[in-house]
Amino acid sequence: MKKLIVNDDTCIGCGACEAIDASHFMINEEGLSSVISNENIETGEVMSAINSCPVNAIKLVDTENSDECACDNCEHCTHHEDNN
Length: 84
Fold this sequence. Notes:
With 84 residues, the chain is α+β, with helices and mostly antiparallel strands. It has a single domain, classed as Alpha-Beta Plaits (2-Layer Sandwich), CATH 3.30.70.20. The chain is 21% helix and 19% strand. It contains 3 helices and 4 strands; from the N terminus they run E-H-E-E-H-E-H. The strands form 2 sheets. It has a two-stranded antiparallel sheet with strand order 1-4. Strands 2-3 form a two-stranded antiparallel sheet. A hairpin with a 5-residue loop joins strand 2 and strand 3. It is globular and about 30 Å long. The two termini are 16 Å apart.
């Protein structure tokens, strides 16, 4: 299973991800990007949002292989649970 994560330490809150895919991302109260849904994440819009991040703060990680996590800071893998 794959999951979207945003690294809070890297995110600069530019809003590109939300502008491209507001069904998966939003800018939170701290001015940083947050994942709002992990449903239907293997779409072109999600990939465009990931690729648009100027600081590469967004990752699509495989949660079944936690030893091979693609994020820079693994505590973020469980930090941004979707609210669905």
